[in-house]
Amino acid sequence: MGLLSLLTGLPLAPVRGVIALGRVIQERVETEMHDPASVRRDLEAAEQARERGEISAREEARVQQEALDRMTTEPDSPGAGKE
C-alpha cells in the first residue's frame, strides 16, 4: 500500500512544495513585520527623511502610526484561513 500511495502522490509533490514554501515565506514576513528592530529602523528612516525634507510631517506621522499599528496587532498564525 505504501508504494501505491507513493506513486499516486508523487505528481502532487511540486504543489506540496510550493505550498510549504508559501507558508515559510508568510511566517518570515510576519516575523519581520512585527520585529521591534524592523519597526525602529522604519521610524528612524522616516525621521531622517523628514529632517532632509523628503517627506512632510503628515507623511512622517502616517509612518509612525503604521509602525504603531504593526506593533500592537498580533501576527496571523500560519494557515489561519486567510485565503
TrEMBL record:
InterPro entries: GvpG (IPR007804)
One Pfam family, short name: GvpG
Biased composition (Basic and acidic residues): 32-73
Domain of life: Bacteria
Region annotation Disordered: where it falls in the sequence: 32-83
Name of this protein: Gas vesicle protein G
